[in-house]
Write the structure tokens for this entry.
Amino acid sequence: MNKASRKGEAIVLLSGGLDSATSAAWALAEGYSVTAISFDYGQRHRIELQAAKAVANDLGISDHVTLAIDLAAFGGSALVDQSIAVPKNRSEDVISNGIPVTYVPARNTVFLSLALALAETRNASSIILGVNSIDYSGYPDCRPEFLNAFESLANLATKSGVQGTHLTVLAPLVSLTKPEIIRLGLSLHVDYGLTTSCYDPKEGGQPCGECDSCLIRAAGFAAVNIPDPRVTAFMASKETNCGSDC
Amino acid sequence: MNKASRKGEAIVLLSGGLDSATSAAWALAEGYSVTAISFDYGQRHRIELQAAKAVANDLGISDHVTLAIDLAAFGGSALVDQSIAVPKNRSEDVISNGIPVTYVPARNTVFLSLALALAETRNASSIILGVNSIDYSGYPDCRPEFLNAFESLANLATKSGVQGTHLTVLAPLVSLTKPEIIRLGLSLHVDYGLTTSCYDPKEGGQPCGECDSCLIRAAGFAAVNIPDPRVTAFMASKETNCGSDC
């Protein structure tokens, strides 16, 4: 279904998580010709880069760029700084001064800027990302007003702006609840078993089941009343490995 | 003169060129406590990273971060793509559809975003850069309206915005001519012999003398009626090396 291109070229931010996989499938279904971009930014959940590759492959996206950028050199977030623990089971240290400690400084600004650079070299007229302002209400760079400001900036910052064409930033999931996102993805045949959302996965990529991202994902699948295929796969693998001793 | 901090913490973008060295000296003279950031982005004029280090050292800036980011993976500019020639002597291919071919897609957006991430982790309230809208009138991301839009975005994108503090983007050279910039830098004791502006330096870092950046710099020094110490140093070195045979 890729490269139908009724809507032109789009750069899709693909993290390998549930939301970005859904927005990539949405972009393809809408008729965009998709180039996916992933970021190797020093995240402790690096397993998501393998997930992004698997998702791109499953969706038939052959143009997939992974860019390395060492945000860990800056520190300041539990997601890149090994000295800051990922909060579990909604403990009080989830929030620090109104912002989750898993917030990575300026992450979406950096990712959108790099997507913009790629958009400009590929003559893409859209950037599509899976941010969501409901689940991530504490993250300043997941809010609609941030996305609108970035779109304005993008059209001042680039050749497109000077040459009179227009670049659009689309966040199709921004106002959806997690169950709504999962239902949308299932209708688009997204294989959620390939996606990973955990901030602090165990050896082999098994979700911890206790971080904020795992809890939000579990609640989403519970609400649509189907098992999370990612969790099911790890449970099945565990049963296979220990046989009758489990 | 560093760490006086009458004005608080600032992140200064330091490329190793004439303009950024001047803006760094300006920031220190104004009383900012300066952290410098440079980018190893696949530029063909990598010699500027050594220049940035020398300038930081000369100005007494001990906190200097160099971040690697592979913009060359995207291509699309003569500055990172070896297959595109750097135009010389104001030849017609300087300009492509109103934009110089040396323009790197979304470069200042990417650099400012990374400076923003660093600002957030260092609690800096200012980002200072040496962009100039007169010399680089063809670059969309050197215009004052771009800088204003980035400041608006920055205050929506970060903890600062949510927590009610304000981040300021300062471009002290934005409306100055090159001679004015050089006079400002000389009054602040900037050693321009340490800086490099050439887009396409020869072996050993010698300026080509023919690219747009060399021509603008040469005209600037000519206007203030002093020799460019960078060029003088290479000429002296050449005379020393070839002795009486020159």
User: Anything to note?
Assistant: Chain A touches chain B through 46 residues (CB under 8 Å). The radius of gyration of chain A is 18 Å. Chain A has eight helices and seven strands.
